Amino acid sequence: MTRLARQALVVIYQARLPADPTWPPGPLILQEGQIRSTAEARSEYYNDKAARVLYGSAERPRRWHDPSRRVMGGIEVVGVEALRASVAGPDAHGLVAVHLRPRHGSPIALLRALAGRRGAPRLDFDPQVLLDGQAVIESTGSPFTISFVAPGARGLPRLYRQPRYWRWAAARQWLWTLASRTTLADYPPDPGNLEPREDEIIRLSSDWHAVVLRDGMGVVGIRPDQGRDDKFFGYAELYLRSIYLDAILLGLMQQQGITHLEKRMAAALDSSLTATMADLEGRVSAFRHHLWAQHLTPHGIPNRVLTAYQRQHALRERFEQILLDISDFNRLNRDEENRYVNSAVVVFTLATVPTGIALALLQVLETHNPWLFAAVGFACALLTAVLLRTRSARVALRALRRRFTIT
């Protein structure tokens, strides 16, 4: 396993930001040749909506970076980034991206450790130490990883050497292993349905391919990497650590937002439904205008990366289900309100029509006889009682009673 000419790894953690970090604002700035991955350069690549979410503005930054490089065991730390995903405030939700480069061997053992696989070696670094109190890593599952390898002159070694995997190309073995963070000991793939499927592979170019799975993105160089003299793979690593990373970060924020909306939807059943749904509608509207996007840039690759992440987490279907649930509630609520109004009209009519008839009768008779007044009043009350005992009246009264009980 010594034929890898290039390795790159980005580990993305969910985190909380006690306050805005004191690091320099903006994304981590990397350089290859004359290209620098500044916020200004990336903003020209992405549309305005995506750029505001990913980078903020000079007055209101949303992203900060620590460019300090250090070595921890067999890992080189290239830099750290923090992105605030929610509005500013104490313990704001966010993401932390740690840029790494394995110094020895392959990244597979490190990926298995990050994924928490059984029997994986211990990590050589603690992400919380790298943050120096600027953010707090949340212990909610394993982090998302973006890993990239490019082969040396001898090509990529086969990871699955068993005869049943002979028809599985070495490049696809690496794509699957990097994205799934598994080996044969963790999960023996089915030889009859080898991953990744053809429609899951993102062909970044003829020289490198990628695949996005639920918790990882794997990128593999197809041809040998020439090392420092290979400008293409140098630019490829820069793009991976910048604009392709940004597409994944946006997908992770969308995942966080939709999960939060689903929790709010479930909580609506345990509270005042009308008030909670009104609040939820406001949150859905804010999410749609602030975070929800499927088209980031006229350049196609980031759109395909984001779409692949959304497909893995069924984000579109989940968001559509939230909209459908709110629409169903609003429809049922309108029907219920119409039913209450109709019930009130029925009760009002049954209670007042006999009275109107009695008053009209007394006016026609032009009498002041108290006995006649009493007789007409008694007849009016009797007729009202009879009408209120009809089926229509009982249904209307039950609806009104239920309305006032719920309120």
From TrEMBL:
It comes from the Bacteria. This is CorA-like Mg2+ transporter protein. Keywords: Membrane, Transmembrane, Transmembrane helix. The chain crosses the membrane at residues 340-365, 371-388. The lineage of its organism: Bacteria, Bacillati, Actinomycetota, Actinomycetes, Streptosporangiales.
